[in-house]
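Practice problem 4.
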């Protein structure tokens, strides 16, 4: 079984995106077109490149999420929060 101690998880529900790591969930608004995330292409210490499916579109699109300003707005120290994260996966529970 895979050790998920250093894995964060990305998902969405409607316009809201959820970035879950251990016992913390960061929630933020995304575009109204987003249907679901499908695959993480790159994780670079707070910067995520992700494939997503948008409503009324057949092709997957590449999108970008920068967590640094989101964490700053929540008064979460980005370096401390992000340091233990080694990978990010798309997961819908």
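Answer key:
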């Amino acid at each position: 079984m895979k050790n998920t101690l250093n894995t964060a998880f990305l998902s969405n529900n409607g316009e809201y995106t959820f970035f879950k790591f251990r016992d913390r969930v960061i929630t933020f608004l995304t575009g109204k077109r987003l249907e679901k995330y499908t695959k993480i292409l790159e994780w670079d210490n707070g910067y995520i490149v992700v494939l997503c499916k948008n409503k009324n579109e057949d092709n997957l699109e590449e999108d970008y999420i920068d967590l640094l300003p989101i964490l700053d707005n929540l008064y979460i120290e980005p370096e401390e929060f992000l340091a233990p994260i080694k990978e990010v996966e798309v997961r819908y529970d």
